[in-house]
């Protein structure tokens, strides 16, 4: 769980995901996903560790992203978050839906607005 009292409490795999983005650590970011995990960014789905790595390079870490979780709510399927994002590619707020399996993320979806 996160240690910042002002930040929403997050499952450890999601906290590692956010830390990896903010630290610019692609290896830790990829390792936060299951082998068959995926990122679905507005319907563009990138599967497995290679797909996740590709998204990290083109949309997140490679663009100097900084992510702040504004709110988090457990759902029947996982954790729905609202987050703030700053990067050379996109700036603003979005919804992010995480599915966690054990100690890793199996999916991260940013639905279209």
TrEMBL record:
It holds the Pfam family SnoaL_2. Residues 15-107 form the SnoaL-like domain. Gene3D superfamilies: 3.10.450.50. This is SnoaL-like domain-containing protein. It comes from Microbacterium awajiense.
């Amino acid at each position: 769980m996160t240690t910042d009292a002002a930040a929403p409490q997050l499952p450890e795999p999601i906290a590692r995901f956010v830390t990896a983005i903010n630290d610019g650590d692609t290896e830790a970011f990829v390792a936060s996903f299951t082998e068959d995990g995926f990122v679905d960014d507005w319907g563009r789905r990138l599967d497995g560790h290679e797909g996740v790595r590709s998204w990290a390079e083109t949309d997140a870490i490679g663009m100097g992203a900084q992510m702040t979780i504004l709110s988090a709510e457990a759902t029947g399927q996982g954790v729905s978050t609202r987050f703030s994002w700053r990067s050379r590619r996109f700036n603003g707020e979005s919804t992010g839906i995480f599915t966690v399996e054990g100690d890793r993320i199996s999916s991260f979806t940013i639905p279209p607005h």
